[in-house]
């Protein structure tokens, strides 16, 4: 049984079935686990919130003396929070953020120790100021980069990277 279709100037003829659209190619991205909404996200937000005031340590020490070190305690508290709840982050996108923030704290602590050691030498005081400046900018960069990725609910591409 065949049916004929006629076309009039008002209605165009139907397209032949042979001209089908090509199948879509599969995306080439690596699948990422979905961002959980439970306590993991809250812990991560709190950790970033504790790391943010630690950025102000340098300014606070400049204006308030050693009382500015109290702000750096917030970074250590954020690190403790991440370490304490590490099992909650395994297998989620936040696992990369835990690694990122842990390394940020360790690299910054090592940089500040280098600055304090060079500051103890008379000839190294100008160099120590430069070390403190570079380490402070580095810390700010890493915290903001991590938080920006966290706010987009994405995992960091390479949490083991230095930059």
UniProtKB/TrEMBL annotation:
Residues 1-32 are annotated as: Disordered. The chain crosses the membrane at residues 50-83, 104-121, 127-144. It comes from the Bacteria. Keywords: Membrane, Transmembrane, Transmembrane helix. Residues 1-29 have a biased composition (Low complexity). This is Uncharacterized protein. It comes from Pararhodospirillum oryzae.
């Amino acid at each position: 049984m065949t049916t004929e279709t006629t076309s009039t100037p008002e209605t165009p003829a139907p397209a032949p079935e042979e001209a089908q659209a090509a199948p879509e190619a599969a995306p080439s991205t690596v699948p990422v686990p979905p961002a959980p909404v439970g306590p993991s996200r809250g812990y991560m937000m709190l950790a970033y919130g504790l790391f943010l005031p630690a950025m102000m340590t340098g300014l606070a020490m400049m204006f308030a003396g050693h009382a500015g070190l109290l702000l750096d305690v917030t970074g250590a508290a954020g690190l403790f929070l991440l370490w304490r709840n590490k099992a909650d982050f395994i297998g989620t996108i936040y696992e990369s953020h835990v690694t990122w923030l842990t390394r940020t704290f360790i690299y910054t602590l090592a940089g500040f120790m280098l600055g304090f050691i060079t500051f103890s030498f008379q000839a190294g005081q100008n160099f120590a100021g430069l070390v403190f400046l570079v380490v402070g900018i580095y810390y700010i960069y890493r915290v903001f980069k991590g938080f920006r990725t966290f706010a987009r609910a994405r995992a960091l591409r390479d949490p083991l990277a230095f930059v």
